[in-house]
Amino acid sequence: MSKKTSTKGKNSLAPLTREENPRWLAADPKGHRPAPPTKTKAAALPFLEIGWENFERLCRRLAERSGDVEKAWGYGTAGQTQFGIDILVRMKDGTVEMWQSKRHKRFGPADITAAVDLFLSHELATTAKRFVLAIACPISTTKVINEIETARTRLAEKGIGFEPIGSVELTDGLRHEPEIVDDFFSRPWVEAACGPEAAAALANRLSRFDLENVRDRLRDFYPAWIASVDPGLPIAGQDRDGTPVASPALAQRYVLPDLLMNVGIADQEEAVSTAPRPPTRDDPSVQSIEMEGAGFQRVVSSVPPRSRERVLSVDQFLATEKRAVITADAGVGKTTLLRFLALEILSEAPEIEAVRNTYAGYIPIWVPFALWCRMADGKDHPPPLEDVVYAFIKSQSDAVRQRREAGS
Fold first, then answer.
1. Sign of torsion, CA 333 335 340 345?
2. Would you list the DSSP string of 258-304?
3. Domain 10-205 adopts which CATH fold?
4. Which of 136, 309, 344, 350 is most solvent-facing, going by the fewest CB within 10 Å?
5. Does 12 score more than 60 pLDDT?
6. What's the CA gap between 270 and 300, in Å, rounded?
7. Sequence spans of domains, the chain
């Protein structure tokens, strides 16, 4: 694979690095949509049209479906020797499987031998019960099959099962996994590889390509809407062509505020005393008195709850809080903050670290609370959130279209 580099000699191998369930390996696939199939039924999926990261993600998905998987590890990073072990899978019964993925256009007998040699060169190979070699191209030539059988015998002598799976075998393993095919290759490939019935069953499902399309459309919609309701201060002057200089977009002029969070300490304090005489019931600080032995009283006082305040950056806030209510006086900037965060989540290169780490690929939905209130006016129950989102986006889309028609 292109991401791996060799070292000068066997003694100069870089230390093996292991990252348990690395974020990139467990993440959803990314990248362009492969070209649609030219035949109604596909003998093999276009594995060479997806990047090496997506191919390893795909292998991990298949590894998880090979049995009851407890954990999966990714070995090494780009540019490091990985001993041919891309994915280590520990099953719930305690056995270990090792997967090696090869996104190659061609894979010959010598490549089979080299892959097995590399696998056996590592000490972890002695703990494996199964070695899976996933290859993105066909492995059906006579010489390759003969070498596979030689390698199978060689590994069997060590108590290790050997399963090489080429593009045809990988496709067969995915024919009953239409959702995986949908996310990695797109809906037309579902119909070609899994059948029209499987594709029809996914009619109401949003694949990652659908989600990317929604994000692209919102990436155009939100800035246009924000510019209409929050145009910013105009900049005096004209450009070289005499056109008035537009105000900077919100993302270019917004300064992130700090947030003040109230953190509760205790709702009630308990004080234990050994006073020789019990307090009286007339004491307003006493809520209840319970005798716990001669000369010993337990006093529960109704002290008002205490709280303390923490100043957090927006980055810290997003990294620690999943649900929150932001309150402030009118005009402080609550609405502008939410608009900025929506644009950040849609950005291909977010500036806020917590957005990059937690909300990458999410679809931010903006709903004006005033609209929700108006739609709920006079009704027994507020309308569903889906109805409010639809009403908002439709009204704004109609307004944008009318402005464009008026301008033309």
1. positive
2. EEEEEEEEES-EEEEE--SSPPPTT-TTEEEEEE-STT-EEEEE-PP
3. Trna Endonuclease; Chain: A, domain 1 (3.40.1350)
4. 309
5. no
6. 5
7. 10-205
